[in-house]
Amino acid sequence: MHEGTPKGGNGIETTRLLLEAAISFIFLIAALHKIQDFGSTLLDIRSYELIPSRLSLFAGLVLVLTEVLLATAYSLGLVPLIRDSAAILLLVVFSIALIRKRRRSPAGTCNCFGSLTWMNRYPIRRNLLFISTILLIWLLPHRSSAASVSVLLAVVVLSAAVSIWIVQLQRRRQQREVDSRLAAQIWDDWWEISQRDSGTMAIVLLSPELPDWPVMDELLSQPASQSAVIVLDAPVWLVRAKKARWASHRVIGINENGSSSNSPNPSSPSGRVLLVRNRMIRAQYSESLQWLKEAAGSHAWK
């Protein structure tokens, strides 16, 4: 079908180039964001419970490498049959894993694109759209353009993905500066609840608007051997209710009066976890639900 397709038809050729560039961009931006927040990527992988936890690092590296290779193959127009099959297989496996995850937790979310939260919405529909696009590419004739066009396309895709990644990296850096001031203030107020063995304090920034809120609420209500500081973006009445319900932890309302009233106000808590030692953030995760699940069965924050 592909081999005998004649050249010509600039519109079809342009359509194929644009579709391949779009798929290349998607895989590359996903890989870059996984690298940027690799700790959260590993938590996200473990949340699917498809492999033993000890293999999550290996799986994370393979996943990032696969996405980079797919991005390269689509931008340069290489090995169409292999790359299309691999891409569809990856998307199908992930979609099945997500459906399985949601059976355990109906609010189960996807963190494939990191801080690009709008790309993480409706992951099943998103993946179906990607698969449909790949199938459409497969139906179109192979590229007939010169190699220089493929190289130029790869450069454009790389430039666009890296530009967006740099913008997100800058925003993440600005957010970390705000988080650092907040962490230092909380450490000064409640350093005594840091873990005695490691001297580490866990600060969890939550909001009832998070999709995993019901599951987090249940986890935090259980007795815990170690206390965390929960910074809650919620009405005063809800903060008071959670102080009573989450008895094992220190609950702070973002806007509540008291010793934290002069603390920097974090923008969009969005389920971040900060591990603080000596007023400094030592680790940060965006996959808060899985972190809470693992922390519930651990005697050390990590």
Can you give me a brief rundown of this structure?
It is elongated and about 65 Å long. Helix content is 58%, strand content 9%. The model is unreliable at 1-8 and 257-264 (pLDDT under 50).
Structural class: alpha/beta
Overall average residue pLDDT: 82
Share of β-strand residues: 5-15%
How many DSSP helices? 10
Radius of gyration over all CA atoms, rounded: 23 Å
Q: What are the low-pLDDT stretches, counting only 5+ consecutive residues below 50?
A: 1-8, 257-264
Question: Which short descriptors sum up this protein?
Answer:
disordered N terminus; alpha/beta; 5 strands
Task: Please give a structural write-up.
The radius of gyration is 23 Å and the shape is elongated. A five-stranded mixed beta sheet has the order 3-2-1-4-5. α2 packs across α3 (56-76) and α4 packs antiparallel against α6. 58% of the residues lie in helices and 9% in strands. The protein has ten helices and five strands; from the N terminus they run αααααααβαβαβββα. It has 302 residues and is an alpha/beta fold.
List the helices and strands and how they pair.
Layout: H1 10-36, H2 38-47, H3 56-76, H4 80-104, H5 117-120, H6 123-139, H7 147-190, E1 201-206, H8 213-221, E2 229-232, H9 236-245, E3 250-253, E4 272-277, E5 280-285, H10 288-296
Parallel strand pairs: 1-2, 2-3
Antiparallel strand pairs: 1-4, 4-5
